[in-house]
Each structure stands twice: as structure tokens, then as C-alpha cells.
Design a protein that fits this description.
Butyryl-Coa Dehydrogenase, subunit A, domain 1; Butyryl-CoA Dehydrogenase, subunit A, domain 2; Butyryl-CoA Dehydrogenase, subunit A, domain 3; eight-stranded mixed beta sheet; 13 helices; binds flavin-adenine dinucleotide; acyl-CoA dehydrogenase activity; AcylCoA_DH/oxidase_NM_dom_sf; Acyl-CoA dehydrogenase
Length: 379
């Protein structure tokens, strides 16, 4: 472990799950740069009880709310962004089941997801981009006639990017267009379903321990038992605050870690950036409070624009904090194995591109403003 990675100002995970915190600190570099530990992440997160946070007790969870789950993602991101991204995928998938009207699907998968035996992956970037009219859905379902008249489909298509496709077993959420018409559905597709192929891990510049690969479906049979929702657009609007809130948790943790890292610089370096660090810390506190309140009160379901603005502000804050850490770290940050500074630069580079990407959100906000202007002018 590098001196940098056992920062004494960090408290969350080091207090609540010290064994996991230590494991992540020791292996953060490996989790980012290769896949040797990729099978261990989900079981380790489960072992620390993190997958049950915010899940009702009667469903096998630890209770609490989605905001507590956001905190766990942030806490893990302070130590390893790759592990936090895996946690995001797993916990978001769990949230899909909690918010699905399909009780049988939930009861079938939830126990194995909560104890970390099964990995949950969310392949809904395509669906989010579809909602914003950026691209068509990439998976199509054809109706199949069954003897007992039950609804069934064969699906074909693929997802180019999907994280937490753990080779030992996964279930992935994907949005599917129906050839017969009607609103798209979201299905939970199991790794062993006929016609499902996982590619080799993608050749990423970082986050290589996250089981990120492409997924292909060829004539994969699915039934109503596999369906998360039969109305993807309406359901996604309701789930989006949790999806994005958990995703923003990664930014909260990374920004916190970089700001804490600026204190490792010498007194001169610390003094030079003290005002900027204080301003960013205050901004981070404000954004954290706003995010949690908005998600908890359900405010972002009807006003997604305020959540989009928060996501953009947090991404910018991550960038600024990571840059300050580089400045205070000096040459030490440019040497291998002495700090996590270079790794956090790579981690920070991912924040603007994960869907919904910053450019996508900026365009959406601009379109909303233009629409508002047109409405005001017409009145
Ligand atoms: C390491 C890694 C892990 C990932 N894991 C997952 C995962 O688990 N699940 C998942 O679903 N996805 C995942 N993704 C995909 C990710 O969320 C983004 O969707 C993807 O990186 C962006 O797609 P693209 O590069 O094909 O964008 P492109 O379609 O090539 O577009 C480039 C950029 O422009 C934006 N853009 C394109 N058209 C418009 C437009 N008309 N208006 C505004 N903006 C536009 C896009 O949002 C994107 O930011 C992952 C990506 C990476 C790099």
C-alpha cells in the first residue's frame, strides 16, 4: 500500500468496513490496471454488507434508504473507483428489482445478488440515450407463440459496453424494442440463457478489474418472468434518480479523496491551494446535501433538469479536485507506486463519459431552455 492510500482523514469505510477498506487500498492499482482480482470484488463488497444497504429488511436487506446506498458508493470510491463502479452496477441492478412490478423476478434473483453469488449488470446506457433520442434501441424482440398462450419472445442484438459481467455468473438489464410495436421492455438476461455471449474484457485504459465487456444475444428465449417492466420509458423516468444518484456517489467519493490528497503536499503547496480546496470542499458539501435531499424526496422524478445540473457540477468538481491533487503532489505523483494520484486522473477521466454523458446532458438542458423560450415567446 502506498502512503497516499491510507489517508487518515478518510473515515467512512475505514470505520464501518475496515477489512474491505484495507483490501481496496492494497489493491486499488491492480483493480484499475488489470483483471486478476475482477472475480473478488462483488464477494468482497457483499462480505462487508454493502449490497444490502438501502434494501428493505423484509427482503433480506439491512434497511435504510437509497441515500445510504449512495453513501456506500461514495465511501468505496474514496478507496477504489473501479470497485465503486462495480458496486454501482450491482446496487443499481438490485434497485431495478426493488422497483420492478415483477415480484417473481425479484424473488428469484435478489437473494443471490445480495450475498454476492450473482453479479448484476446494468446495460441501460443505450436506453438512456434512446430516451434522449440519441440512438435507437439495439436489441429487438420477436413474439413467439407458445402452447399455453403465455407471452414469450426471442431477442437479438447486443450492448457494446457493460460492466460487472462477472465470468462466474451475471444477470444483465437491457432495454428491448418489440417488433410487434408498443413500448419497449426491460429484461433481465441471465448469463446462461441460450444465445447469450459475453465478449472478452474490453481493452480499457483503466477500470480493468470491472468485468467490462460486450454482450450479444442471438435468438435468446425470454418470457414474462424475465421482464423488469413492460413500459421502459415510463419506468426509467421513475428509476433515473436512483440510477443517477448512485452514479453521482462515485463522483462524491472521488472528489472527496482528491481533496483529502491535497493535504499530503508540503506546507507551501498546501498554502498555495488552501483557498481553492476550501471553496471546492464547501461546494462538495452543498452538492452532496442537494443530491441526497432531491433523491430522497423524489424531487428529481418531475424535475430531472436539476439532477442533470448536479451531475454536471459534480463532474466538474471531480476534475478540479483531481487537478489540485496533481499540483500539490508534485513529482511524487508522476512516479509509479508512490501515490494514487495518476490513477485518480484516469478515474476522473471516466466521470464525464459515463451515460448520461456531460455533452448529452448539456444538450438536453440547452434543448429544454430553447423550448421554454419558445413557449414564453408564444405567450
Ligand atoms: C469503462 C466503461 C464502462 C461502461 N459500462 C457501462 C455499463 O455498465 N452499462 C452501460 O449501459 N454502459 C456502459 N458504458 C457506456 C457508457 O456509459 C457510455 O454510454 C459510452 O461510453 C458512450 O457511448 P459512445 O462512446 O458509444 O458514445 P457515442 O455515441 O460515440 O457519442 C459520443 C459522446 O457524445 C454524446 N452524444 C452522442 N450523440 C449526441 C447527441 N445527439 N446529443 C448529445 N450528446 C450526444 C454521447 O453521450 C457520448 O458522450 C461504459 C463505458 C465505459 C468506457
Amino acid at each position: 500500500m502506498s502512503a497516499d492510500d491510507s489517508h487518515d482523514s478518510l473515515h467512512g469505510l475505514a470505520t464501518h468496513a475496515p477489512a474491505l477498506a484495507g483490501w481496496l487500498d492494497t489493491h486499488a492499482e491492480t483493480l484499475d490496471t488489470d483483471a486478476t482480482l475482477s472475480a473478488d470484488v462483488v464477494p468482497r463488497l457483499a462480505g462487508a454488507g454493502l449490497l444490502r444497504v438501502g434494501v428493505p429488511v423484509e427482503l433480506g436487506g439491512a434497511g435504510g434508504s437509497i441515500v445510504d446506498a449512495i453513501d456506500t458508493v461514495a465511501d468505496v470510491a474514496e478507496h477504489s473507483f473501479a470497485a465503486a463502479f462495480v458496486l454501482w452496477g450491482q446496487r443499481t441492478f438490485i434497485e431495478y428489482l426493488l422497483q420492478s412490478p415483477n415480484r417473481r423476478l425479484r424473488d428469484r434473483h435478489l437473494p443471490a445478488l445480495l450475498c454476492g453469488e450473482l453479479a448484476g449488470a446494468t446495460g441501460l446506457s443505450n436506453a438512456m440515450k434512446y430516451l434522449s433520442a440519441i440512438e435507437p434501441l439495439q436489441i429487438r424482440a420477436t413474439n413467439v407463440v407458445t402452447d399455453d398462450g403465455a407471452r414469450a419472445w426471442r431477442v437479438n442484438g447486443g450492448l457494446p459496453w457493460i460492466t460487472n459481467l462477472r465470468k462466474q455468473g451475471f444477470v444483465a438489464a437491457a432495454a428491448v424494442d418489440h417488433e410487434a410495436g408498443g413500448p419497449p421492455s426491460i429484461f433481465a438476461i441471465a448469463h446462461h440463457a441460450p444465445g447469450v455471449t459475453r465478449s472478452d474484457d474490453l481493452d480499457l485504459i483503466g477500470l480493468r478489474g470491472t468485468n467490462t465487456a460486450a454482450l450479444q444475444m442471438a435468438d435468446t428465449p425470454l418470457t414474462d418472468d424475465d421482464r423488469v417492466t413492460d413500459d421502459a420509458p415510463a419506468w426509467l423516468v421513475r428509476v433515473r434518480p436512483a440510477f443517477l444518484g448512485l452514479q453521482c456517489g462515485m463522483s462524491l467519493g472521488l472528489a472527496r479523496r482528491s481533496l483529502a490528497g491535497t493535504r499530503d503536499g508540503g506546507p507551501g503547496a498546501r498554502a498555495a491551494v488552501a483557498d481553492e480546496v476550501a471553496a471546492l470542499t464547501e461546494q462538495l458539501d452543498t452538492l452532496t446535501a442537494r443530491l441526497k435531499a432531491g433523491v430522497l424526496q423524489g424531487e428529481f422524478v418531475d424535475t430531472p433538469a436539476s439532477l442533470f445540473k448536479l451531475r454536471i457540477a459534480l463532474a466538474e468538481l471531480v476534475h478540479d479536485a483531481a487537478s489540485l491533487e496533481v499540483q500539490t503532489g508534485g513529482g511524487r505523483g508522476y512516479l509509479r507506486g508512490l501515490s494514487g494520484i495518476a490513477r485518480r486522473q484516469r478515474e476522473a477521466a471516466f466521470v464525464p463519459i459515463v451515460t448520461p454523458s456531460l455533452v448529452q446532458l448539456k444538450n438536453q438542458l440547452a434543448a429544454q431552455r430553447a423550448q421554454q423560450l419558445r413557449t414564453e415567446t408564444a405567450q
